[in-house]
Design goal:
9 helices, elongated, D-Maltodextrin-Binding Protein, domain 2, 2 domains, alpha/beta, 10-stranded mixed beta sheet
Amino acid sequence: MVTAGCGGDDHALRVFAASSMTDFMGEILAGDNEGSVAHSAELNLAGSGTLLLQIDEGARADLVVLAGSDHMKHLMKSGDFLPPTEFAITYLSVIVSPTLKGQRLSVHDLWSEGFQGAMCIVSAPCGELAMKFGNSLSLDMKGLSREPNVRAVLAKVERGDVDFGLVYETDFLASRAGVGEIPGSEASNFSTAYSFAISKDAKAAARVKTLVDSITGEAGRRTLSELGFKQP
């Protein structure tokens, strides 16, 4: 749980967001100059599957931002949230550790030359996308380590714990650790859409509306573009 503002407030604005939305949500909250949202928001960042599990177990969320349509469909089954709004799209990317950056490697080189890789667990949208990509190229994905979310994959590649990883293009762009990207991998043919849903019983309805307006308004669209997201 990453908390902005005062914790323990039953009427705090509780936002659950996919870990790949970390930078976007941070920018949106930082841009709240009046502080009507940022100073009373509790931002919970985790993999989309983890967020759903927390909600299924009773955690309260006023606004939920998820990657992948299947996860949002699962959330809708509860009947506790208003219909979702899709607002961003990102694409798959194959990245390599800083020590491999600059080497002329192909995706098939990574598999055939014994490099170690990482991907998200298959139940996460980034893992599902990685499997579709691997299947399209007949790659054996069993040897890749499985991480709980895309930022965990990115961190392992940044540290050099693994040689390569399958992340989102936007996570690659967000990295400041000198990782590289495999060109021409066809990973960009695979995309994930993001959508948000508002609780029907939101405890901070006015602040939810303010945050949603920021996400969907000019500032949100500009921030998405700056971070490399596409818009539907």
